[in-house]
């Protein structure tokens, strides 16, 4: 989704640039190279059409920019840890640590080993 919106953003930027350069200025700009603008856009010329097209394209550009910013911000809030698998071969540690060693008696004296008697 983001790659599609990013491609649309580049295309809109190029089309807006071309539309702005085609508009009539004091030196006519690139509009002089477009040939018969009067017959394509009507008797009044391209002025009104190009200004409306520039406004529409600019609005689409701003909306697309806001959408891209929102989507990238949502992706940034996700953590890489969220996508890590938690199934592992290491057993989990229980919440209470229990000792597996037998408890030694506290009052018992050490026992001396005895040699068995032979008969």
Task: Report on this structure.
- By secondary structure, this protein is mainly α.
- It has a domain of 76 residues.
- It contains three helices and no strands.
- The chain is rod-shaped and about 125 Å long.
- It starts with a helix and ends in a 42-residue tail after the last helix.
- 1% of the residues are buried.
In short:
With 119 residues, the chain is mostly helical. Helix content is 48%, strand content 0%.
Keywords:
119 residues, mainly alpha, 3 helices, rod-shaped
Principal-axis shape: rod-shaped
Task: State which percent range the strand residues make up.
Answer: under 5%
Mean pLDDT: 76
* First-last Cα distance: 93 Å
**Regions with little confidence, pLDDT below 50 for 5+ residues:** none
Count of alpha/pi helices: 3
Tally of strands: 0
SS-derived structural category: mainly alpha
Level of helix content? 40-55%
Quaternary state, please?
A: single chain
Report the radius of gyration as a whole number of Å: 39 Å
Largest sheet, strands/sense/barrel: none
Order of helices and strands: HHH
